[in-house]
Amino acid sequence: MTQSATPDIAAGRLRADDLAANFDDVKPPLDRKKALIESSRCYFCHDAPCVEACPTSIDVPNFIRMINTGNTLGAAEEILDANILGGMCARVCPTEILCEDKCVRNTSEDKPVNIGMLQRYAVDHLLQSNHRPFARQKPTGKRVAVVGGGPAGLSCAHALAIHGHDVTIFEARPKLGGLNEYGIAAYKTVNDFAQKEVQFILSIGGISAKTGQALGRDVTLDQLRKDFDAVFLGFGLAGVNALGLADEDKLSGVEDAVAYIADLRQAADKSKLKVGRKVVVIGGGNTAIDISVQTKRLGAEDVTLVYRRGPEHMSATWHEQEFAQVNGVKLKHWARPIRLLGHNGAIKEVEFERTALDDRGQLVGTGETYSILCDQVFKAIGQKLVKDPVNGKARESLDLHGGKIAVNEERKTSLGNVWAGGDCIASGIDLTVQSVEDGKVAARSIDRYLRGK
């Protein structure tokens, strides 16, 4: 996290008890009574549209029926068999545009069944018990390298371990978990849940982890292909898009939202995190929403999120946008940054140009400008694949498509024994639940390959 020279960016803006309340669980879990009441609302549809809407195809009516009949462990097994990170997905999935959006009760006169909270109820119940539903098959002697310990890598590793293959996860950061550990708002995943889920996955056996091992720095794709029978790439997107403005890297107070969120998630004492009084966030996705709300909850007096298009174009869902506004974040649309203005080496103002769509639907500037005073700016305009660590000086290079790794429907890359999944592939869907599905699909394909099928 950048250490700013401006006194307007400071730590300790709120008392410890206020910070604790602000970063407590934003969605308190259901108790048994509420879970039974909510589960009774399900129609248990035969051809349930909620199942079709789930990227991991969880049998939603079946697990809800199990909760309703008192078989909570069975419900959790049903969920985890389809989505091994079902606990985290229950917390962070945009259910409002996936399963719950397609719920037959989702009408103007009614509301959808709270599928996400019921899923969390079941999985949390299992994780808090000593029940371990998965057993590892007889070892095959085959070895697989998984690069990246995030949702895609963990999902792939667990599925391969069940089939008896030995898996080694290479993770660049000190902990496994990926975005679940480093990139999600702290109030969405409290009590170190990401690591509890990681430990549950590793408990299957057959999975070892090497942290602090980055592709291109500590290990190479060529070497992994030689040392292992198969390789799965699930390292996400390490690069951060720049604004492309003068002095962007020189002015104090202009920061990367992804890095700040990672620091916040790992902070033992949030009162020591420095935050500005007047914060501007540039972007329109989940990262932009997360950094906006979290800086507000850290004590920023004024937080403004600016997006170049309209609210309907934002990748953050309507639910997330409303959540930001309820938390005091101002959302401004149809404007793009054109100049950063500083004083004594620190950011003091951002100049924006109003935008519009032309007759061809292309985004254009209108020439009309306005400025927002600030002492801290967060860039949250997306991430990108860092190509050099992927291909570098490799004898054979991976095919890329749209700036990401190209794969087929089985998540197979252009190289003979290499698969990929998660945000680093060109799937068009950057969601935790989709990354889990990528890892699961790739594991099935890798297993067939290792068995000569």
Q: What Rg, in angstroms, do the CA atoms define? A: 23 Å
Mean of all residue-level pLDDT scores: 94
Number of helices: 17
CATH class descriptor name of the largest domain: Alpha Beta
> Largest sheet, described in full?
5 strands, parallel
Global geometry: globular
CATH architectural category of the largest domain: 3-Layer(bba) Sandwich
Low-confidence stretches: none
Q: What structural category do the secondary elements indicate?
A: alpha/beta
Q: Give the % helix.
A: 25-40%
Instruction: Specify the oligomeric state.
Output: single chain
Euclidean distance between termini CA atoms: 48 Å
User: Largest sheet, order of strands side by side?
Assistant: 4-3-2-5-19
Question: Beta-strand percentage?
Answer: 15-25%
According to DSSP, the number of beta strands is 19
CATH topology of the largest domain: FAD/NAD(P)-binding domain
The domain tally reads: 3
CATH superfamily of the largest domain: FAD/NAD(P)-binding domain
